[in-house]
């Protein structure tokens, strides 16, 4: 399998949506108290085009020939110094998704490697992301690549 990683383009929109919908369904089933089934288009073409034009966003698509296999969306972030926080720059991975039938074939790893290359090129040495606790497959994927838990959200439902 020859996988090509490129910047997302306008014509990738519908292929991206197909993968995003797979991911959305997993999150809706895994965290039903937070996510619901969208009643209409939940990610517009306009939203997509804004992201691919954003200078702080690195939106990459993995393809085999012209078939889209996965994507990653990462942002360059900068935190200003405050009385209690140090200034810092980091990359935040907003989303990574691979079509179900292409998982465990190196697609996600290649996408992550490209984001790490980008971080090095722009002299940023930290990458952060969020992963839902229910998503054991993703959690393991990130841990295998050296990501460590540094904060944890907790929830309690009271009646």
Quick gist of this model?
The chain is 32% helix and 25% strand. It has helices at residues 13-30, 45-53, 107-121, 136-144, and strands spanning 4-7, 57-64, 67-79, 88-98, 127-129.
Please identify the top-level CATH class.
Answer: Alpha Beta
Question: Strand content of the residues, in percent?
Answer: 15-25%
- Rounded to the nearest angstrom, the distance between the terminal CA atoms is 52 Å
Number of helices, counting only DSSP H or I runs of 4 residues or more: 4
Please give the CATH architecture: 3-Layer(aba) Sandwich
State the secondary-structure class.
Answer: alpha+beta
> Largest sheet, order of strands side by side?
1-2-3-4-5
CATH level-3 fold name? Aminopeptidase
**What is the CA-based Rg, rounded?**
17 Å
Low-confidence region ranges: none
| Succession of helices and strands | EHHEEEHEH
Q: Which percent range fits the helix content?
A: 25-40%
- The rough form would be described as globular
Return the average pLDDT rounded to an integer: 94
> What number of domains?
1
Describe the structure.
The protein is an alpha+beta fold and 159 residues long. The protein has one domain (4-144): Aminopeptidase. It is built from four helices and five strands; from the N terminus they run E-H-H-E-E-E-H-E-H. It has helices spanning 13-30, 45-53, 107-121, 136-144; strands at 4-7, 57-64, 67-79, 88-98, 127-129. A five-stranded mixed beta sheet has the order 1-2-3-4-5, sandwiched between helices. A hairpin with an 8-residue loop joins strand 3 (67-79) and strand 4. The chain is globular, with a radius of gyration of 17 Å. The N and C termini lie far apart (52 Å). The mean pLDDT is 94.
